[in-house]
Amino acid sequence: MPIRIPLIALLSLTLLGCGGGGGGSSAPVAPPAPPAAPTGVTATAKDGYILIDGNAVAGATAYNIYWATSTGVNKTTGNKLAVTSTPQAHTGLNNGTAYYYVVTAVGANGESAISNEVGATPVALNTDSDPLFADQWHLLNASQVSATGVLAKGGEDINVTPAWVITKGAGVRIAIVDEDLEMAHEDLASNLAANTLNYNYLTGTNDSTADTANTTAGHGTAVAGIAAARDLNGLGGRGVAPRATLLGYALLSNQTAINEADAMTHNLTSVDISSNSWGPKDGTGNVIASTSLWRSAIDTGLTTGRGGKGTVYVWAAGNGANGAATCAACIDNSNYDGQANYRGVVAIAAVNDQGRWASYSEQGANLWVSAPGGEFCSTHTITTTDRTGAIGHNTNGTGDYANTNYTKCMNGTSSATPMVSGVVALMLAANPNLTWRDVRIILAQTARANDAGTCLTAPVAPNPCPATSTGWILNGSGAPSATNIRYYFNHNYGFGVVDAAAAVTAAQGWTNVATEKTPYTTALASPGLAIPDNNTTGVSHPIPVTGSGITSIEWVEITFSAADHPYAGDLDITLTSPSGSVSQLAKKHSCEANPCTAYNSWVFGSAVHLGEVADGTWMLTVKDLSLNDIGTFQSWKLKFYGH
Fold this sequence. Notes:
Helix content is 12%, strand content 22%. The protein contains 7 helices and 29 strands. The model is unreliable at 1-25 and 454-463 (pLDDT under 50). With 643 residues, it is α+β, with helices and mostly antiparallel strands. It has helices at residues 161-164, 219-228, 257-265, 292-304, 413-430, 436-446, 500-508, and strands at residues 42-45, 50-53, 62-68, 79-83, 89-90, 99-107, 110-111, 118-120, 173-178, 199-200, 245-250, 273-276, 312-316, 345-351, 369-372, 382-385, 406-410, 473-474, 488-489, 520-521, 529-531, 539-545, 553-561, 571-576, 582-586, 602-606, 616-624, 631-633, 635-642.
């Protein structure tokens, strides 16, 4: 009996070699025959799609699937699907309609005869048909109990189930830029884009599955499931946007500067959202710049992606808040990462099952919103897809699901990021006319202030009122009103936890934001002030801004230099706006390498001042909070984006 494997696994097979012989025979030689017809073909009904499978055919390099809605399918009467890569899912079907299939094998010597005919009828399953959905507290928090008896705090989720009544993200494409994306995974295959839209930067092929012998792989497959695992198919759990389309870009196994930039614009016309759960090494304490190639690629995506509306880049804020095993005080801030703090990306922090700051999640004035990431597998982390079999996070079912195609141990800002990518997919499905700037503003206005108690004051708009708990600030000035929008911000959470239902509802009736004005850049100020050593007062320097033309800030860049300070980790740096809102740009910390990388024209990013006016006096304060090392507040300048 032949070994039965999916057709998708056969596509890399090469034509079998033919034996030759000498001799004096003059008998005619028959031309090589095409492959044999496939056997064991099956059609399995799902919700809105059918999976086609079958046995291997020697010499086949591809397969053709012919289908129709009546019996008697053949090469002439059937509609052809050329299968050159995964998946072999026939999608976009009508539930309740019967579909019939035959399959042929294609080789170097032609196409085979047709297989036996098979048929199936897609059917909508009930809402409880995904067996692991009950564990997905991040989608619907019903106070689930962890293996160690920890109760999730009811309601601490992304409020996505009401959004699914409006849309599930069909038609929106999410590029998963990561280590891998297993194209044949049973809970992902039906949502995979056409083969030519996927890419592996190590192999140069369109197979984003990566090396199946690499047992540490699986990160990208887990990320993909969080964003868009298929729903209502009786398998695994669900993604946030369970009918969105996934593209896999296997970048991290060949992560050169050129490849990083290319992954931001690869197949740009076919990408709506770029989901990036990666970044520099965590727990170093050093500032790590992005490359000019990468920044240029992001700018290209913002200006030309989605037909000029802009690709939405979603980025993990980083997991270095606990430092490193070898240096607990090497605490990272997301603003030390030149990718996560770039104005073109949406930086995502993580919360746990109590709706509070996840212990690893980096702080930052650059944070936009948060999403669940959980803590560790002994409590509640995230249930998602895993590499099939004994590869990935779940290799043997010990302490995890017995079905190793799934895991409940995915965590980090790596998990929070694809959740927001999924929410953005729902927003774009509800309103395809949103620009990347509209997406950001809607997310900020609809985010839920978590970790909250009594409200400071009830704003008219935008994001729900947070608490007097430490860290929440109300930016801007004056009383909030319909014409004076102010935002609550927290350096742990950004504007709060993403609220899918609120974001999708807002997207439906959204009027696009005014055209972005030319960014306003101040002249470089060079105060040359000595920074007092081990002093909590520090030194401050003002920059007055007039005539900027920007009455509603969307982002602020702060370029700062203290290059002569021998230990940059001693410095605490804050920016205060004319209205009194404070951006904490850097805090005292240690660094893995000694000394810390100096602040030499380092560009910080700040979301804190969203909606504020640019004109007025801005103040930068620099404090040295440790003994021995001294330096100078050399220079700084500001750049404002907005309308």
